[in-house]
Amino acid sequence: MPPDRSRVLQQAQLLASRGQFEAAIAEWKKLATEMPGDGSIHNSIGDLHLKRNVPGEAATAFLQAASAFRAEGATLKAIATFKKVLKCDPTRYEVYRHLGDLNVERGLISSAVQDYLTLGKYYLKERRGKDALEIYKKIVVQDPSNLNAQQRVAELCVQENQQDEATKVYLQLGRERSAQGRYDEAKDAYLAVLRIEPANSEAAQFVENIKKGGTGTVNAVKPSSSVPTQKPSEPLDLLTEAIRRIDEKQYAGAEAILNQMLTREPGNPQVCQLLARLHLQRGDVQVALGEYRFLAGAALRAHDPGLAESLIQEFLSAEPNSVPLLELNGELFEEKGDHSGAALQYAKAVELLLEHPEPGMESLHEELFEKVRSLSTDEAFVNRLAARIGGDTSAEPRESVQIASEPEARIDVPSLGQSGESAGTDREEDLASHLTAPGMPSVSPAVATKEPAGSPPDHEAHYALGVAYKNMGLYEEAKEEFQVSVNSDSFYLDSALMMAVCLKEERQIAHAIRGLETVLADPRCEGAKGQAIRYELGLLYEAEEQWEKAAHAFQSIPSFHDVPQRLAALKWKQGGGDAGFKYAA
Q: Which CATH number fits domain 5-164: 1.10.287.990, 3.40.190.10, 3.30.565.10, 1.25.40.10?
């Protein structure tokens, strides 16, 4: 007969509260036996092992929990739990493979590459060449522009006696570096080819040209729905079939063909262009963004403005508000000598950054504005943009620079400490600003954590991830997650409370107080959660020795938890008088 879940949970919690952690774990394991795929059970067991100060067993439990969360599709919970494994046992490097794969699923390629690199470097240190080769190949597939990873793949192929594969990778490295004008590095790549295959005509010709004082070149290939120029190593029928499937929206089949070709010839520009187009059309915008940036940038470096313009416009036609591509478009206009056109592109990027600052790049709009100032001859235009940056919303920006965006809903909320008249505020933005410590980047709640384009944030998952980070002592990461989940009515009060708790742990008491004071002005602050907010605010006032405000907060919830005792203590601290209760009505 299966155990009664509620009874087992109650017993486990009781035992844990008494410090009987092993007995509590035994209770949880009863449930784990019946429900081995429930990640929350293994996560709770891991937390109890941590309280027992047995990090090895905790890591094992967290690994089971993370695998279960991943199996059920709870990506964010899986990531948070895998990170708990590493916090318990940093030597479990295999976890980085899982983190990399999960970040690929989320479209966060740069994070995935970092995870794979950590694992790859570990394999190199341990002299596990075959395993390292597999990981570096994964990096190249996700980030074809990473020439360092390609170099490592080539070296490992030689080490593992995969001569044909090494030749293909070195040839591609030579082409890429030549296209970028890095001729010495290109020469090194071609010399590596000749050491493997002395009769290779392409490598021999390039090296001979260098010796004669010339340079080698790699012809850029313009993207087109027509069939690209055939090479001996690129079967025409495969390229044709991939293009046909992309046109017919058979993306999985097309991607399989293109990935197969990239395995044979990593970094092939024709295949990379088709793969980028596939990702863009399928809606994998973050993946496509990195690919288009590299391809267009390579075209600019190869002095092929036509190809660069084609790639940039192809992406902007689908994502017109992409700051990185607008910036690249500005560089293209500069390359063509059209300074006014370049200034306009940079100005569009500035407008977008003012609306949605890039986390960690808060000064980017200022850098781009300097480019506008130096390139534009329209003084009035520059002054209007400067006024926008300075916060003068009365300055009307030039029509051609305005970027279409949804109007922000604003709610008039009376500020604490004001009576009658009150300025209009955006409650979520106000809350985020109050619950962010000084010196931290100002991150809009809507963009605190990037989601794959087109899918709304999973507020419950962000909240759960935030709680996991908080429990691990990763308060900065926790606040970023709560700044996303706070936008949901269902998690607004919980997220606000958790942000305040994080700030309290960081000794940012004043900021936590201001944040919860903002929450109190919200009509959603009611019921049991509203009581918890008032209680936490009272504790914060006590920590700051603001006795009268603490009394006011506690008096509004006179029977909550230990409030009667706290009120008595406050009264005693104020000499037995009732001055501390003058705000309570």
A: 1.25.40.10
